[in-house]
Write a structure and sequence with these properties.
Blueprint lengths: L6 H16 L23 H31 L3 H27 L8 H18 L1 H25 L5 H23 L7 H18 L3
């Protein structure tokens, strides 16, 4: 029989998630990185390496935001099955977080110093969406994942030609994000109108523009 978690248990779990998300190298992937030892980079100069690191830093911060978003939504979701779906999606996103962190280390760089700020903002947005209703919350997941997918496709084009390891990671992330978006819609998520998606796009530009170097 499964033990019912107490409020204290849940608080400890939430705090553990925050630490695993924000502390560098703390996230542990459940799946091996798509950048297997067989995937090898071609030589890159310093400028190309810095550019690749900047793009992977953006993707890492995007996964920090995803963790916070799912955690906030799971906290306020009305239906247990929706709460469970949020937790499952967040668990899968941990893989992405760990893969991006690992790739940043390989490139000799670090995660964004702004991650705690974006985590707090995303948690608040997720909690607010969950409080409005599960249909809106799931719709927000779908719209967010669709937007992330577009970023990943753009980054696959912008990466240096010789950066095969980052490209392998982003390809798998794109597959996973598309799956999460589809699951959210199938679970009853609302399809957001174009003006709402445009506003989300503007907020995303603030994030990508700030963490590329910081």
């Amino acid at each position: 029989m499964n033990r019912q978690l107490s409020r204290t248990d849940n608080l400890i779990h939430q705090f553990d998630t925050v630490l695993r998300t924000l502390v560098p190298h703390a996230a542990q992937a459940s799946r091996p990185s798509p950048a297997t030892p067989e995937v090898r980079d071609e030589p890159m100069d310093d400028e190309e390496r810095r550019h690749a690191a900047g793009l992977m830093r953006i993707n890492h911060t995007g996964e920090v935001c995803a963790q916070a978003l799912y955690q906030g939504q799971g906290l306020t979701a009305k239906l247990p099955e929706v709460r469970g779906q949020m937790e499952e999606a967040a668990s899968e996103e941990i893989d992405h977080l760990a893969w991006c962190d690992e790739r940043l280390r390989e490139l000799g760089d670090r995660p964004s110093l702004l991650n705690p700020l974006f985590y707090a903002a995303s948690f608040g947005i997720g909690a607010a969406a969950g409080a409005v209703g599960d249909r809106v919350s799931l719709g927000f997941v779908a719209a967010t994942e669709e937007q992330v997918g577009r970023h990943l496709e753009e980054h696959l084009v912008r990466l240096p030609a010789g950066d095969h390891r980052s490209r392998a990671v982003l390809r798998q992330m794109a597959i996973d994000e598309a799956h999460h978006a589809q699951l959210a819609l199938e679970a009853g998520g609302a399809r957001f109108p174009a003006p709402v998606k445009f506003g989300m796009k503007l907020m995303s530009k603030v994030m990508t523009g700030s963490v590329y170097r910081v």
